[in-house]
C-alpha cells in the first residue's frame, strides 16, 4: 500500500533532531547545521490556515492535513547566527488523482524555502513512499526529497537550482531523528 499525504504528515509530526550538511557551490563552502525541528498538526479552521488558503485562492474543503513546522539551530558558517523560523504548510491534493490515493498535489507555504515569500510547490509521493517537492521562485527553484528509513529516522535531500533549473547552487543532506519521550 502506498503512502498518501495524510499518512506522510502524520508520520512527520513530533520533534526531530536534525544534522544537515550543505554545499554552497557558488561560494565553494561546506556548512554543517544542527537544529531542532518541531512539526505540529493544525486544524483546518486554524486562522493561519484559513488566511493562507484565502491568499492562494484555495477552498478550505480541498485541503488535506495542514501543519506547522518550527526550527531553531546553529551553523558553523557564522557561529553567531541562530537559525530560527516557522512556516505554515497546507497540502492541496489533486482531485481525480488516477492512482486512487491522494499522493500528488500542491503544497502551500506562508514562507518559502529559497525565498521568504509565500510559495506553492508541487508534491508527489512516489511508490516507495518518498515525498518529492518542487517549488519555483523568482530567482531560484527548490527540489526536496524526504523519506523514512524507520518510524523515527528520516532523510531529506535538498537542491537549490538556478531559476532555469540548469545549475545547482546549493545541495544538502539531512538526517532527522525523532526525539522520543523519556520513559520514567
How many E strands?
A: 10
Supply Rg: 16 Å
What is the CATH homology-level superfamily?
Calycin beta-barrel core domain
Helical proportion? under 10%
Unreliable spans are: none
Known CATH architecture: Beta Barrel
Explain what this protein looks like in three dimensions.
With 184 residues, this protein is mainly beta. It has one domain: Calycin beta-barrel core domain (Lipocalin), CATH 2.40.128. The chain has two helices and ten strands, in the order αββαββββββββ. The protein has a ten-stranded antiparallel barrel with strand order 1-2-3-4-5-6-7-8-9-10.
Write the layout of secondary structure elements.
Blueprint (H helix, E strand, L loop, with lengths): L4 H8 L1 E11 L4 E13 L5 H10 L10 E9 L6 E12 L10 E6 L9 E7 L5 E6 L3 E11 L2 E10 L5 E11 L6
Antiparallel strand pairs: 1-2, 1-10, 2-3, 3-4, 4-5, 5-6, 6-7, 7-8, 8-9, 9-10
